[in-house]
Amino acid sequence: TTRVNYNGFKANVNLGGKIPLGLKRKGLRIVVTGGAGFVGSHLVDRLMARGDSVIVVDNFFTGRKENVMHHFGNPRFELIRHDVVEPLLLEVDQIYHLACPASPVHYKFNPVKTIKTNVVGTLNMLGLAKRIGARFLLTSTSEVYGDPLQHPQVETYWGNVNPIGVRSCYDEGKRTAETLAMDYHRGADVEVRIARIFNTYGPRMCIDDGRVVSNFVAQALRKQPLTVYGDGKQTRSFQYVSDLVEGLMRLMEGEHVGPFNLGNPGEFTMLELAQVVQETIDPNAKIEFRQNTEDDPHKRKPDITKAKDLLGWKPTVPLRKGLPLMVADFRQRIFGDHQEGGS
Ligand code: NAD
Ligand code: UDP
Ligand code: UDP
């Protein structure tokens, strides 16, 4: 017998080796929460190209219809305006759970809403996964390592996180989301997958989300000085979005729960990043130092041995290759067709 789950009707049926007409699956049915956002929309593009049916669930807090508009009219695509803090009834095979503001400016805007999204939102999507027997992937973050005392960060490291700081709604929220995922896995047999994503950049990032790559690129294009916070010696590792999407899909399709670090181990100080932006956009761009924000992690670099060994994944796009792709998109969105101030 085969277990079938067709539009909510679950059954063990003897199909005699044949799938009856009407039950034949054309691709998978997949929910992407946060699918109108930066990472989510790139993931949706890959799933649609693979032939899956995709339902995007998004409240448009930071996401934009423009990011998925090119799929409107395709019968395999649906877009639902919905806040994951509220329960949701759907029938699908897989849930990619990305809904959550990701940039510090956005997640600090309403910290209580951020933590509700991480905790209640993730609980709802796990409850959904449990009810329909769907596989569930959580996009956690390198921020679960806090201001790390181990470098580079391995998945077995438990982190150094401030529970009462201004970042806690996000990093403690994601830690709780990971806990919930593991408890639904152990307690309710939900097939879960956990990705810990390191800083990712690429086309469709919000232009004014305050993240360092989007800030520097927008500033250089607008002929404004690049704002380096603190002494600029803090480090980050920047991953191009297509590498991340490939990693997320391998993780979802594979047999390992994780958590897996997904990031590019190439480590840059913020001053080095400013230099790469100067080389790419405008060698004469000025640098301006600003006071750093509270609780800013000093360094961050993923150890990706586990993802290499178990998922056969590693990033392939270095910063100097990926940045120009993002610059082209930002140039288009900032200046439109006329290149005022652009070069
Ligand atoms: P994003 O802000 O572009 O996308 C998040 C999406 O979630 C947006 O479309 C937003 O409207 C939606 N959303 C937010 N709250 C919601 C809610 N309550 N209900 C429904 N939808 C909601 O951010 P992103 O960079 O694409 O991040 C996607 C995921 O990846 C997030 O979970 C984030 O924490 C994680 N992540 C991203 C990075 C990165 O560098 N981009 C790093 C680590 C983790
Ligand atoms: N939930 C949901 N969609 C579903 C099933 C559950 O949104 O299809 C929500 C439900 O409202 C609840 C949460 O997920 O708040 C956890 O559900 P679960 O069944 O695990 O727990 P319980 O409802 O027993 O507290
Ligand atoms: N940063 C900076 N200039 C900016 C924005 C950020 O120097 O205009 C620094 C910030 O202090 C941090 C690093 O860049 O050390 C990465 O910040 P971002 O907000 O992009 O991501 P996160 O802190 O979540 O890694």
Descriptive account of the structure:
Pathway: Nucleotide-sugar biosynthesis; UDP-alpha-D-xylose biosynthesis; UDP-alpha-D-xylose from UDP-alpha-D-glucuronate: step 1/1. Catalyzes the NAD-dependent decarboxylation of UDP-glucuronic acid to UDP-xylose. Necessary for the biosynthesis of the core tetrasaccharide in glycosaminoglycan biosynthesis. This is UDP-glucuronate decarboxylase. By secondary structure, the protein is of the alpha/beta class. Helix content is 35%, strand content 19%. The protein has helices spanning 38-50, 104-109, 111-132, 168-188, 212-221, 241-253, 270-280, 305-311, 319-335; strands at residues 2-6, 9-13, 29-33, 53-58, 77-81, 94-97, 135-141, 192-197, 200-201, 226-229, 235-237, 239-240, 260-262, 267-269, 287-290. Strand 7, helix 4 and strand 8 (192-197) form a beta-alpha-beta unit. Helix 1 packs across helix 6 (241-253), helix 3 runs parallel beside helix 4 and helix 5 packs parallel to helix 7. Mean pLDDT is 92; it is low at 19-24. The chain binds nicotinamide-adenine-dinucleotide and uridine-5'-diphosphate (UDP) (2 copies). Residues 33-34, 36-40, 58-63, 83-85, 98-102, 117, 121, 139, 141, 197, 199-200 line the site of nicotinamide-adenine-dinucleotide.
- Main sheet strand line-up: 5-4-3-6-7-8-13
Span between termini: 64 Å
Rough outline: globular
Strand proportion: 15-25%
Order of helices and strands: EEEHEEEHHEHEEHEEEHEEHEHH
Uncertain stretches: 19-24
Ligands (ions, cofactors included) = nicotinamide-adenine-dinucleotide, uridine-5'-diphosphate
Which percent bin holds the helix content? 25-40%
Tally of alpha and pi helices:
9
Structural classification: alpha/beta
Largest sheet: 7 strands, parallel
Based on CA atoms alone, the radius of gyration comes out at: 21 Å
* Average pLDDT taken over every residue: 92
Number of strands: 15
